Automatic annotation (TrEMBL):
Signal among keywords: yes
GO terms of molecular function: hydrolase activity, acting on glycosyl bonds
Entry keyword Secreted: yes
Protein name: Uncharacterized protein
Pfam family, one: SUN
Location within or outside the cell: Secreted, Cell wall
Length: 122
């Protein structure tokens, strides 16, 4: 399912956060939400598709970054920023930071993760 979210620089965007206690369970595992993060400036029709006509190896399914969200059975929400590997090696051209009541800072700043390693942060 493709539901475009188009934030502007500095804008906050609410994301779906499935609850492990109340949402679909597959193979005894809770469902989380995964979001492709495309490079800036791509219009919806070029970014929210499986095969982008303008950036086939860096947009849509091949977007540089994924964001994952989920509310665990313990009531804690987990939010992750991670590279879209092995599907894509594209690099994101802007920064992302999770801001809120968090235990650990998680950000992607100038291509480097804060609060994690080369595989992302939670």
């Amino acid at each position: 399912m493709v539901i475009p979210t188009i934030p502007q620089p500095g804008e906050k965007v609410a994301l779906t956060n499935p609850s492990a206690n109340d949402y679909y369970v597959w193979n005894n595992l809770p469902t989380t939400a995964q979001y492709y993060v495309n490079k800036k400036g791509l219009p919806v029709e070029d970014a929210c598709t499986w095969n982008s006509p303008v950036d086939p190896k860096g947009a849509g399914n091949w977007a540089p970054i994924n964001i994952g969200t989920g509310k665990a059975a313990d009531g804690n929400t987990y939010i992750s920023i991670f590279p879209n590997l092995p599907t894509s090696t594209a690099q994101l051209d802007f920064n992302i930071e999770i801001i809120g009541d968090v235990n650990t800072k998680c950000a992607l700043i100038d291509g480097q993760y804060t609060g994690g390693g080369s595989t992302g942060c939670t």
